[in-house]
């Protein structure tokens, strides 16, 4: 069985999502389907079809979470330190061409959220940064061609 690295916080979020889906969302959608059925002809009942679509999404997500959670390997980021990029690190990089500075946290693929500044350990950027140190210049593959970035900071808090 393949293991997926994840922070403890990420695992808690997935477990909470699964709990809500099973205890709140699933019963609510079952009630909505029953109510829509009571309205008669199902072939032209938009409420029924929307509820069935929602049910399909919920059941699919429950199945996905039930397969991911047992395969999670929690990495205790609090025990990590140093100037080397590892799983769980907050990494500040500067684009050597544009001088743009960005900070990302490298975390598991099922908890990453680019909008919140976290990237998956399996992303091209994270793969290029892993194992490197502060001051290293790293070439990162990008859609418009490779970009060079310099690692300016690494922290684990």
TrEMBL record:
Function: Necessary for efficient RNA polymerase transcription elongation past template-encoded arresting sites. The arresting sites in DNA have the property of trapping a certain fraction of elongating RNA polymerases that pass through, resulting in locked ternary complexes. Cleavage of the nascent transcript by cleavage factors such as GreA or GreB allows the resumption of elongation from the new 3'terminus. GreA releases sequences of 2 to 3 nucleotides.
GO biological process: DNA-templated transcription elongation; regulation of DNA-templated transcription elongation
Residues in Transcription elongation factor GreA/GreB N-terminal domain copies: 5-74
PROSITE patterns: GREAB_1
Organism this protein belongs to: Neoroseomonas lacus
InterPro entries: GreA/GreB_C_sf, TF_GreA/GreB_CS, Tscrpt_elong_fac_GreA, Tscrpt_elong_fac_GreA/B, Tscrpt_elong_fac_GreA/B_C, Tscrpt_elong_fac_GreA/B_fam, Tscrpt_elong_fac_GreA/B_N, Tscrpt_elong_fac_GreA/B_N_sf
Name of the gene encoding the protein in the UniProt record: greA
Protein's name according to its UniProt entry: Transcription elongation factor GreA
Record's keyword annotation contains Ion transport: no
Family named by the database record: Belongs to the GreA/GreB family.
Pfam families, sorted: GreA_GreB (PF01272), GreA_GreB_N (PF03449)
GO MF terms held by the record: DNA binding; RNA polymerase binding; translation elongation factor activity
Keywords (A to Z) from UniProt: DNA-binding, Elongation factor, Protein biosynthesis, Transcription, Transcription regulation
Domain Transcription elongation factor GreA/GreB C-terminal: 83-155
């Amino acid at each position: 069985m393949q293991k997926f690295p994840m922070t403890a916080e990420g695992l808690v979020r997935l477990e909470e999502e699964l709990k809500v889906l099973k205890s709140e969302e699933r019963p609510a959608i079952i009630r909505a389907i029953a109510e829509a059925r009571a309205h008669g002809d199902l072939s032209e009942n938009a409420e029924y079809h929307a509820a069935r679509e929602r049910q399909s999404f919920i059941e699919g997500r429950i199945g996905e979470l039930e397969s991911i959670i047992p395969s999670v390997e929690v990495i205790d980021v609090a025990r990590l330190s140093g100037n080397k990029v590892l799983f769980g690190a907050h990494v500040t990089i500067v684009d050597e061409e544009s001088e743009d500075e960005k900070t990302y946290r490298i975390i598991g693929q099922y908890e990453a959220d680019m909008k919140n500044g976290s990237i998956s350990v399996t992303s091209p950027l994270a793969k290029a940064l892993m194992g490197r140190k502060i001051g290293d210049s790293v070439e990162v593959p990008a859609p418009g061609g490779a970009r060079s970035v310099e690692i300016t900071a690494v922290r684990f808090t």
